[in-house]
Amino acid sequence: MTPRIPWRTVRLYAFTALAGFISAWLIVAFFVLPGGRARNRIVTPDLAGMSLEEARHLLDSVGLRFSLGEERPSADVPRNGVLGQQPAAGRSVQRLTVVRVDVSAGPRQIRIPTVAGLTLEDARKVLSDSGLSAGGVQNEGSTAPRGEVLRTKPDAGRFVGEGAAVELIVSTGPPDLTMPDVIGRSPGDAVAVLNQLGISRVRVQGNDSTTAGLEMVVVSQQPAAGSGIRTTDRIVLRVSPRQ
Description:
This protein is α/β, with parallel strands linked by helices. The chain has helices at residues 7-31, 52-62, 120-129, 187-196, and strands at 41-43, 65-72, 82-86, 92-94, 98-104, 109-111, 133-140, 149-153, 159-161, 165-171, 177-178, 202-205, 216-222, 228-229, 235-241.
């Protein structure tokens, strides 16, 4: 006589078999059959080089959600250009996964340092250490020593993008002039000669109400004729009635 299998054992075998079937079916449904779990997976696109709006539109079109991440300075990526993303490009994620997009704030803004009074070499080093570069050099006549930086373009204190070129205005030194001999000339002629040389600080002494109507001539000058002068020097002419 065949022994009978207890009902409890039968139920256990049946339950084990059913669980195995369900597990096998889930594996096939999710990983083998088309239209299973794979249908809900999306490969994250590469957003590098896109603008903020382009990245937002692309994520929406493939079934992912957009989230604005950090805004960081960048000298290479234009403002509102994509700097990075999380999850990274090429990752398999669930549909409607949030992708955080970091964007560029444009070049870091730097205040132009004061370099007036420095040599050209030192000024270039200060600009480089500040994250800027020296642009063109423009020479300008000045009483400052030759080669000394007078100012920058844009002016010191202005903000410009990191790496921007700053133009340097450099002194060519004071002009070399020789004081002309204006003794014997009328005051008007003497002043005109000096003005033609770029000298504007001329003082005439000896003209007053008592000499009104008289023909006046220069009788002395300071500095003396032949002296070295600059355009900013002060010239004193003494006049007297012509004898």
